[in-house]
Amino acid sequence: MGETVRWGILATGGIAASFTADLLEMADARVVAVGSRSPESAKRFAERFGIPRAHGSWAELAADEEVDVVYVATPHSSHREAAGLCLEAGRAVLCEKAFTLNAREAVELVGLARARGRFLMEAMWTYCNPVVRRMVELVRDGAIGGVRVVHADFGLAGPFDAGHRLRDPAQGGGALLDLGVYPVSFAQLLLGEPDDIQATARLTPEGVDETTGVLLGWDSGAVALLSCSLNADTPQTASVTGSAGRIEFPRGFFHPEQFVLHRPGRDPEVFTAEGPAAGLHGLQHEAAEVMRCLRAGETESPLVPLDGSLAVMRTLDAVRERIGVRYAADEG
What we know:
Number of helices: 10
Strand content: 15-25%
Shape: globular
Structural class: alpha/beta
Number of strands: 14
Strand order of the largest sheet: 8-9-10-7-11-12-13-14
Largest sheet: 8 strands, mixed
Distance between the termini: 37 Å
Radius of gyration: 20 Å
Helix content: 25-40%
Order of helices and strands: EHEHEHEHEHEHHEHEEEEEEEHH
């Protein structure tokens, strides 16, 4: 792997545009191709960002020998198919979250990557954020004692009409997989896979979750209280409370620029991101981790381990089972 990593972008929606914009600001990244099921969409995207090659199918992008790694930016209902195509063609893959529609699909993707010896990582940018990484270090070093309670929420004001993909079961709609994946992943980053899972939800007429509350429990005694919604503009904050202190993240906890550490008898300590990030969306951190792994010959990232992504998918499956949300892919 050379110093410059060559990226292909699969899909042309909003998150693909944001990721591509961040890549273009990175000196060691080059976006060389884009692929879409619509040749016209691929061409427009390529022209917008100055990308040399536009492919009119996912398979053509996957077969492009000039691409080192593909960023899969489709809705999660297509992650298994799109990422699988790329892995089978020999490409490394960064796949958006939620990783897949369900744990079965995630197991298939991880098995394929490991069998082929190809790099695969879920695009959980939160885990790569330097502020979050600093928080994890503090917690593991005992700065707040043993973790007791985690709070996190992610809700959007909406409303989303019946034709929107967030309400479409065929596209994996619902608050949980699009938004709830962040609070769940945040809790499991600190505590691992839960031992007890409880949940309640209000469903849309289409049968996907509109607002969901989740209570996770661990044998250690720790609990996590999490929520997500398609029709409530929640604070979008998070906190971690331990036996000897508390860490609080402001709005936008999933891509934070700072957090505050509270400990008894001490003034609050503010931890802030270092280095310039003006004009970027915050996605450069996960891109940098992918490129570091590729140069080092690693097929999995220690920051976003595949076993952790599988564990989150198992939790999301369990939550959906408890609230009564099923997708056609669950029958596969």
